Amino acid sequence: MSQPDGFKVKGKENYVCLLKKSLYGLKQSPRQWYKRCDTFITRNDFKRSSYDSCVYFRGSTYLDRVYLLLYVDDMLLASRKPVEVQKLKQTLQSEFDMKDLGRAQRILGMDILRYEVTSDLVLSQKEYLNKVIRRFGMVDAKLVAVPLAAHFKLSSELCPKTEEDV
After folding, report:
1. Do residues 41 and 68 make contact, with C-beta atoms less than 8 angstroms apart?
2. Phi/psi zone of residue 119: left (φ > 0), alpha (ψ -120 to 50 degrees), beta?
3. Do the Cβ atoms of 55 and 48 come closer than 8 Å?
4. How far is residue 13's CA from residue 2's CA, in Å, rounded to a whole number?
5. CA-CA distance, 21 to 91, in Å (whole number)?
6. Which of 55, 70, 73, 121 sits CB 3.0–4.6 Å from 49 for a disulfide?
7. pTM flag (> 0.70)
8. How far apart are CA 87 and CA 66, in angstroms?
9. How many Å apart are CA 52 and CA 38, to the nearest integer?
């Protein structure tokens, strides 16, 4: 190991720099970043989901719940109450350098579609599926229905409503 160019000190050529913080590019960087975020988030009364360690929530009922989803250095904040999202943004900005990109339109390759009239929120992987279909040369393949039982209906009623349901 040697001193970087521009930082050589005469008489101390055999000295090296002591790294006090993890840096991008090091193998442990993602882990250190996650630990720092996790510590800050849980210190601010958020609970980590037992199903996914990158999902945090705060609030006693689903009506006042605030969700924070963390993926590497991307965060998605969600709540039925916009004022709670704004307060969380301010709390996070007090600790981290952040850029607010506004309402999320895309996360992890999924499009986020909003239907204001019905208050529905839909995740779509249409673009990803088209890419897979092109990659495997199946653009002209015969279409079939989704292999899901006809009687099976997904609805908001299936969502957790109490702390015990989560």
Report:
1. yes
2. left
3. yes
4. 8
5. 23
6. 55
7. no
8. 10
9. 13
From the number of C-beta atoms within 10 Å of its C-beta (0-12, 13-18, 19+), residue 119 rates as exposed
Task: Give the Cβ contact number of residue 32 at 10 Å.
Answer: 13
Task: Give residue-wise pLDDT tens across range 95-154.
Answer: 988 888 888 898 888 899 988 898 888 999 999 999 999 999 999 988 777 766 777 777
CA distance to 9, 34, 160, per residue, from 56 (Å) = 47, 13, 14
User: How many CA atoms, within 13 angstroms, populate the side-chain half-sphere of residue 20?
Assistant: 0
Residue 96 pairs in a beta bridge with none
Give the C-alpha separation, 46 to 67, whole Å: 9
Q: How far, in whole angstroms, is CA 151 from its chain's centroid?
A: 33
Tokens coding 57: 């929530």
Contact yes or no for 55/69 (Cβ under 8 A): yes
Rounded-to-integer distance, Cα 48 and Cα 35, Å: 12
